[in-house]
Write a structure and sequence with these properties.
Elements (H helix, E strand, L loop, with lengths): L15 E2 L5 E9 L6 E11 L2 E4 L1 H6 L7 E6 L6 E6 L3 E4 L16 E5 L2 E5 L5 E4 L4 E2 L6 E13 L6 E12 L4 E7 L15
Antiparallel strand pairs: 1-2, 2-3, 2-5, 3-4, 4-7, 5-6, 6-7, 8-9, 9-10, 11-12, 12-13, 13-14
């Protein structure tokens, strides 16, 4: 989604914290339904236990995709990043792969984080699977790459593009079964046989 391909370095969005249990997100970035341009909103909603509840005023301003979803940027003390939101006004953080966008919805699921562990959630923002992984890709051709441990970004000579290195990685299928054992470094993880996937 090209409207989000924006450098966010140095962007400072003020927030007000109401309590340890709930965080009031006073600002966010979203595509405006009239202009299609990225807009900064005020009083965007409340973050509680990883779930974002959008303010109704912000929800009414968002340009929604044909799937009834959108990706917005929220800045919070512990939840800064891209969130998927739906037209019911609920959202979850989807921080992987993309620096300037949400991770792709695939096979009816997106990848999120809860307590720094990977979760897979659906378009209703209901968590379908909690895991002990620290990183995951979206599902592609029936499989998702998953990792435990610390991954490091190795940048090219221009400092613009990077590849992930390290960790212990493998692959799971759509039923969340490990089809490639989670034991390989990121760059040396063998890929599963697409023809062997479970339909």
């Amino acid at each position: 989604m090209s409207v989000f391909k924006i450098l966010l370095l140095g962007l400072v969005l003020p927030l007000h914290f109401t309590s340890a249990a709930a965080t009031q997100a006073n600002t966010c970035l979203y595509p405006d339904r009239h202009s299609g341009e990225l807009q900064q909103g005020q009083s965007c909603g409340t973050l509680r236990n990883g779930l974002l509840q959008l303010d109704n005023n912000i929800r009414s301003r968002i340009h929604w995709s044909k799937f009834g979803m959108q990706c917005i940027f929220v800045n919070s003390h512990d939840q800064r990043g891209w969130f998927y939101v739906n037209q019911n006004g609920l959202g979850r953080r989807s921080p992987f792969y993309q620096d300037n966008d949400c991770n792709a919805f695939s096979a009816g699921l997106a990848v999120g984080l809860e307590d720094n562990k990977v979760v897979f959630f659906n378009q209703l923002m209901a968590i379908e699977k909690r895991t002990d992984y620290s990183w995951a890709s979206h599902f592609y051709q029936g499989f998702a790459k998953v990792c435990r441990g610390q991954l490091e970004k190795e940048y090219d000579q221009h400092g613009e593009h990077y590849q992930l290195q390290g960790g212990q990685c493998g692959f799971i299928d759509r039923n969340f079964r490990e089809v490639i054992a989670v034991q390989y470094s990121f760059s040396n993880t063998p890929e599963p046989d697409v023809d062997s996937r479970t339909q």
